[in-house]
Every structure is written in C-alpha cells, then in structure tokens.
AP-1 complex subunit gamma (Scophthalmus maximus), 656 residues
Amino acid sequence: MSPSIPLQEMIRAIRSARTQCEERGVIQRECAAIRAQFRQVDNGGARSHNLAKLLYVHMLGYPAHFGQMECVRMIASPRYSEKRVGYLGAMMLLDEKQDASLLITNSIKNDLAHSNQYVQSLALCTLACMGSAEMCRDLAPEIDRLLRASNSYIKKKAALCAVHIVRKVHDLGELFAPAARSLLAEKNHGVLHGAVVLITQLCERNPEALERFRKTVPDLVQIMKGLVISGYSPEHDVAGISDPFLQVIICFMKDLLVATNTDSTKTVGNAVLYETVLTVLDIKSESGLRVLAVNILGRFLLNNDRNIRYIAMTSLQRIVGTDHNAVQRHRGTIVDCLKDQDASVKRRALELSLALVSASNIRTMMKELLLFLSSCPPGAQSSSCQRHIPCGRKVRDTHTRRIDVHLRGCIACVHCICACAQHRHSCACESIKPSLVQVACWCIGEYGDLLLKGECQETEPSQVTEDDALDALETVLQSHMSSPATRGFALTATMKLSTRITENVDRIRSIVSIYGSCMDVELQQRAVEYNALFRKYDHMRYVTVLPVYEKDGVSLTLICEKTSDSGMTVTLTASNSTDSDISVFTLQAAVPKSVQLHMKAPSGDFLPARGAAKVTQMVALNNPNKVNLKMRIRISYNTSQGSAYQDTQLVSPTGL
C-alpha cells in the first residue's frame, strides 16, 4: 500500500478486510510507511496527511505512540493546517504523565499570544484537555489575560480552560476570581455559560470565594429573567425554550422564575424544570420552594411520557422522608401509577406508595396495595409481598391494627376457598394464585384467633367460624392442583389452629393423622411430627380464650396452660383502653370446694391509660375430681376521679 494514498482510501481498505488478521496486516504496512515518512524531510504537507492516518489507527485501538514527537513538531509549525492536526494529535496521544507533554508548553504559550483567534483556540482547547499541573501553573497568567480580551470567542474558550486549571491547581482559583465576576456582564451566551461554570468551581473549592460570589446573585437573576421572559431568539431557541442549557447551569442560584414561567408542554421545558427541582431539593431552600418543587414533580406524574413519570417518582422517592407531607398531597396520582402498563413505572409507584403508608392512611392505602398485589404478574408477587409486610410494622397503635394487613387478604382468601368447598367449585379454587393461597394459609394459622373474632378493621364486618377456617384448609389439602409446598403450608396452619380454637381440636387431630401415611415424604414427616406433639406433649398446649371480661374500657383475658393431668395454670391479663389511669386494681377468684386454688402475686396494681401497660396475675388450679370447672372473678379498682368500682364475672377455664 502506498503511503501517499488519501485517508479515505486507507479507511476503505481497512473496512474491506475480511478477517482481523487481514486488518492487522493492512495497518502494520501502513504504520511502517508512516514511520518511514516521519524520518524524511517534509514534502509538501505529507506530515499532516500521515499524522491524520495515524490518529485513525489510534482510534481503532492499535499502538500509535511513535507519532508523539511528530505532534510536537507539527504544533511548532507556522502553518495552521499542521498546527490543527498537531494539536489534535497531542490531545489524543499525549497526557500529563508523559514527558513529551512538557515539550509543547512553550508552543502553547506562543500560540496563546498569536494574532489569529483560531490558533489561540487550538492552544486553549489543548491546555483544557491535557494540561498537567506544571503546565497550568506556567500558563495561568496567559489564561487570565485572555479572560479579559475583547473577543467573545476567545473569552468563552479561556473560561473553560480556567475551569480545568482550577480543578488541577486549587491555589490558582484566586487568580481568576476578578475576571470571572466581570464575565457576567457579557451578552454572549457562550461566555456566560463558561463564566457560571467557572464561578461554580471556585465556590466549591473555596468558602471565601463562595461568600464573595453571593453578591453576584442579583446579576444571575437578571440573566435568568432575561432568558425566561425574552422573545424568540433563533440563535438560542431550542424547541421554544430560550437557551435551556444556560438556564439549567444558572438555576442553582435562583429557581422561582424558571419554575413558574417555563413551558412544561415540551420536553426541553420539562428538562429545565427537572433540573430546577433537583436544585431546590439539594440546597437549603425555603419550605415554600420545596413544596413548589414537589408540586412540579406531581405534575410530571400526569405526563403522557413514561420516562418523565419514572424520573418524577424516582425524585419523590428520594425526598419522601424529608418532605413527607408535601409528597402525600400527590398520593392519589402515585397510586394511579400502580395501574401503569410499564413495569418500571409500576415498580417505582409501588416503592413510593409503600413509603407513603402511615397510621392515618393505612386503611385506604392497603386496600389499593392489596388490589395491586392480586393483579400483579406471578413473577412479581413474591417481591411485592416482601415489601408489603413492613407496612404493618409502621403502625404500632394496637396489635390488631398491625396485622390488619394480613387479615385483609386472609379473609378474602378464606371466603373464596370456603365458597369453593361448599359449592364444589373446584375450578374457582384452582384459579387462585398458589403464592396467594400460601400466604392465606400462613395468615390463617398465625392469626386464626383474630380472624374468628372478625376484628379486621380494613374491611366490612364479616364472620368466619372455626369450621370455615378448617374447611378452607382442608380444601387446599385435598385439591389436586395444590403443590406439595402449598399442602405443607396448609398442614402447618391446621396444626397451629389447634392452639387457637377450642371446639374442633379433635377434627384437627383427625386431619393431621390422615397425612401420616402420605406418599409425599415432606408431608408425611410433618404429619408424623405433629401427631407426636398430640400424643406426647398435649399437656403443654396453650388454650387461649377470647376476652372473658370487657366493660367500661377495662378488659380481662384468660390463658390456660395444662401442667399435668389434673393441674392447670391460668394467666389473667388486664388492660385499660380509656383515656384515664386506673389505680388500686385487684383481682380475686373463687372456685368449687373440690378444686384447689392458689393465686400468685400480681405484676402491679396500676393500669395506665390507652393500654400503655398491662397487669398480669397467675392462678394455679388443681382439679383431681375432674368436676365441671367454673371460676368467679371479682374485679375492683379506683378511677382517676377517686370513685371505687367493683364487678364480678363467671368464667369457664378450659383444658381440664
């Protein structure tokens, strides 16, 4: 291949290579010819021609370091065409770590003082691209001189070069501060853009400079005002927005004019508004401005562009912890995004909705979130369930409210499964998603006592009996569509119910014993172990009675534990849900003569208001004759007004 062929022909030859080996051969031959040409005396512009081809070889990833000295020689050339290629080669082949870069310092200094603005521009661009700390120190005075030049083209380049110098050598920032302040009086947008970037760098690196440039805020406001309210300018107009790039770079100082006047119907306008919002949220803005920024993001949620909706929710997610009330105003719009067709938008909406759950809105929010859970794709159900659970932990008013989240889905599934069992609609039962059935089984086993009481506050009052709960679990166990894992959930839930119900323990024992000979090894092992619990450790079973006494805000619950064939320990727990404290609280108990009773000391005699603490007392009973056990309890206490109160209640401890 001849070294004198044009660059275009060399590119064509490289691209026509069929294999990488053939391509390497073409490049090696051309590099050898270029290297030979570099050693010869210049023959009418061949140097720039060869260096241009070598730069293309470098762009393809092949070594081209042997062209570094040629770049130095061409930068020193008096010809503009050679200087241009030489400076381009220096920016591509040299960096501040190489000694060759120091050789061009004097050439750059001479070109910075050149009468041709384009030669000056080449020197400025090269220094801003690869200038080392030593070069920056040597040439900083020249850059400061050019910042005060009358040529706007040169001042724009000099400002960006000064930014590079400040980043490299922080101490030189003071040198450029006066010139940077004066650049704000320029009319050229390129100079203004460079000036604002330079001022930003100076403020970030020097607190004293920050205080000094605070005085420039009125100037920046005037520039911004001119951009926002100015008429059509074809030189700076971008889709109807006047120089959005300059607006964005200035908006960190003042944002109100942008936020209230920028056209939000176009993508460019939304970009300016979004940068404004980020600025308001990142700096210590007034509360009114932060609310304005959140409202702008709220309008973004109504945009037809999914990308805009996505970035709006991403930004709201960042600030929901600090500006919770402002974000709450857009809760309805955020919840509507759960129905979006785009999976990424839907995922962001779920994360943000969960972050908005609080004690005041948990009922309405969980209805929407559980509706989303029932309609989300099967692959996303597992992760969605994991995100739902912490919502119940956010609200710690009462134990019942904390688990309303679980009971809401649990009741719905129990009703559905029970209907299937009663009407033999097996197809309807099979249509329930397996993961939802497993969650329902777990909830039935874990919160069966509250489920039977119908205390779920998130839905309409509904009654679920012990038979309903067991029918639902039996339906899951017997369905041929249930996987072994789902049957395992149902069998474990059935066993848990044996400690939470009182009427159907024998039925539970029968259900569990059937699976002791199941073909599935996992189910068989569970059933055998559960049967062993029934046979060997039945005396340790806790039997929980729903409250035995509730009156005037005072409630008393009773928990029975069988300690032997004739012995039982009863735990009495009292609580006060009124707004006033109760003092001198005492409990007394009486049983038939054939039953031996021993009351242990109570945990206290003071019941604080609103269930802040409870009083417990243990009662040991021995019933050797196995008589029908009845226990009369006397409750007495003094109210906060000083009046005495006394009442009695007849209860029947079960388990003996």
About this structure: Residues 538 and 562 are 8 Å apart (CA to CA). The chain is about 60% helix and 10% strand.
